[in-house]
Amino acid sequence: MRLKIPLSVSIVIGVGVVVLLGYFIEIPVLAIVQQVLLEWALILAAAALLVGVINLLSVHFRRVSGRQKNGAYSMILVSSLLLTFALGALFGPKSDLSLWVFNHVQVPVESSLMGLLAVVLAFACVRMLWRRLNPFSLLFLATVLVMLLGAAPIMGIEIPGLHGPDGLRALIAQVPAVAGARGILIGIGLGTIATGLRVLMGADRPYGG
Amino acid sequence: MSFENLASSDIPAILFVLLFLGLMIFFALSGRKKAYQPTREIPAFDRLRQVIGLAVEAGKRLHLTLGRGGISGVEGASAVIGFTVLERFARVASVSDRPPIATSGDGTLAILSQDTLRKTFKTIGVESQYDPAFGQLSGLTPMGYAAGTLPIFYDAQLAATVFAGHFGSEVALLTDAAGQNDVLVLAGSDSLPAQAVIYATAEQPLIGEELYAAGAYLKAGPMHLASLRAQDILRWILVLAIIIGAGLKFLGFL
Question: What is the pTM of this model?
Fold first, then answer.
């Protein structure tokens, strides 16, 4: 049955308020209801994962059947997904075959991308100066260099004032970096509370209500 | 309910949330009489508004990526902001030849992005043009998500892409690819490592709470403006509390 808008919004607000109160007020019944609701959320998230995988499959299947650009990559994705699923379903996720696929396909591919990421970040720092040359970008780059050079002795030599617990790297990591991170986190925390309250009030409805 | 059930350490937290809620309601009610505009200029949103308009004229697509954080944890808030941006995208560009698309690294986010698009298409009377493929799951592991999203920057003829959600450092692969394809990149995240990477790689980075102001700057509704005003006031209260606390500690009172 399709829910009418006011009912779906009421359910969201009601559930949200119960879960929120459960964090603040120690009443056994409220704790049980909160636990049940959170377990339902986990089950729904698992079901959503399955729906998402079906969506992924259908999008790439359409690319293959429609002979779209780069359809070959979609073909590889669809066949790999089905093959991995079949191996997991037939032999179990901890079988030698499933683990072989994980260790010899997924791990190397993800490690390669991680290696690529280091190169991309190095180039990105240089491009940032070209795109946005201002004191903040220069400070950012200088800090990155200090942190990188101070991470380990350079060819076995520790530079006084840079390495060690009293060096520049430790000073940056312990004082301005922590202060800046806390400032950013306070902003994120306030934004998160504001967003949560808007959802609880029904002003934000990311659920189609 | 009695106040004995309240843990003493939770009382300040409850009071803070209630104060936040009260300020939001107050500003929402008072904002009906006099329109409030955010005083601080965030260039990223000005640029995004320009590009949204140009994208429809140029027949280019708008893209939103919601990260891989899910909706049930703290990181869900940044994704909710993403849905607000997606709704604005859909309102402007759903009638164009290239409707907006959303990618995510979590099943719940993928379903909700489809739902947001379907709802908006229905609201403006073009539901027949809606396609579930406009909201895609692109991968479930960090690198799988990055690899699944990358082709969009090369194939989809994008004008702008917005990153709003929970990411890790893998976001650099995406922002860099988008930048190389002359796509406007506007990016914000609730994750500190992702923010550092975004600052270096994105054309228009959103730092800290700037992402959460998206609804107010994109005119998503009066409650977004009200919550932004409440955020501004509470930020100053927290700043004063920190300074006073540090002063008292320095003087030996704490």
Answer: 0.89
